[in-house]
Amino acid sequence: MTINDLSVQNRFFLMAGPCVVESESMVMNIAESIKRTTEKLGIPFIFKASYRKANRSRIDSFTGIGDRKALEILKKAGAEFGVPVVTDIHEPHEAALAAEYVDVLQIPAFLCRQTDLLIAAAKTGKIVNIKKGQFLSPAAMKFAAQKVVDSGNRQVILTERGTSFGYTDLVVDFRGIPEMQSFGFPVVMDVTHSLQQPNQTSGVSGGLPRLIETIAKAAVAVGVDGLFMETHPEPQKALSDGANMLALNLLEPLLVKLVNLREAL
Q1: CA separation for the pair 148, 131 (Å, rounded)
Q2: Are 136 and 111 in contact (CB under 8 A)?
Q3: How many domains would you assign to the chain?
Q4: Burial annotation 129-144 (CB, 10 A radius, 16+ → b, else e)
Q5: Residues 1-49 pLDDT 10s
Q6: What span, in angstroms and rounded, lies between the C-alpha atoms of 249 and 128?
Q7: Which residues lie below 8 Å from residue 43, measured CB to CB, with a gap of 6+?
Q8: Whole-angstrom Cα distance, residue 130 to residue 109?
Q9: Domain containing 25: what range?
Q10: Digit-coded pLDDT (tens) for 196-205
C-alpha cells in the first residue's frame, strides 16, 4: 500500500474504528460496518484501532488484551474485509513488531518529536501517520515529517488533532490544514480527538461529541485530504475515549453529508 492508493477524485479518505482492540467480535463488527458504508460511498478506508493504549490518565485504565493477540485480530480484520489497517506505536522496538501486522504506523501526538520512534517507523517502509502534538504549531510538523523522509521513507501523513487551550480543552485552527499540506504530504483531520477534553479531575478524559459534525464539515470545506474518527456501537461502554467517540450508527449519515459537501466544492 502507498499513499497514492488513498487518492480518489472528489473524495477524502477515512481512518476509522474503535480507540482500542477490546475483542475480536467488536473489531470485526465495526470493520464490517464501516467497510460496507465506505464502499457504498466510494471512500477509501483504513481501519483504525490501537493494539495497546500506553497513554492513559490512570494506572487502572484499560490498556489492551495483549499485544500479539490484538495485532492478530487487526491483521485478520484487514484480510477479511480487504482494507489496510493503522495502529499506534509508542516505542522504537514496537515499530518492527506492528509492521508485521498492519499497513500504517501511527505516531501519537505526545510522541511526534521522538526522533528514535520516527526513525524506527520510517525504516519499516510502512506509511507513517504523524499526529501533530497538541503543543506544536502546524509549521513545526515539517521537521517531524523530515525525520521520516531523511530516514529513507517519503510515505508520510500528517494529522491535525487540536491544540491545547488551557488545561482541559483543545481548539482547532483550520489554517493549519493548508499550511501542513504545503509540505507536500496528505493531511488528515482527527475529528474525534480534537473534541477531547483531557486532564479532567476524575482522571477520565471528557469530550464534546455533539460537535463532531461541525469539525468534520469545516475540515472538508477547507480541503482536508482525509478524516480520522473513532467510532463504537456503544460509546458509553467503550473501554477508552468513549466520551468523544461517534456512535457507529451515526457514521453513515454523517459521511453522506460530507461527501455531498466535498462534491459541492
Answers
A1: 13
A2: no
A3: 1
A4: bbbbbbebebeebbeb
A5: 888 888 877 789 999 999 999 999 999 999 999 999 999 999 999 999 9
A6: 29
A7: 8, 11, 12, 13, 14, 37, 255, 259
A8: 7
A9: 3-264
A10: 887 665 666 6
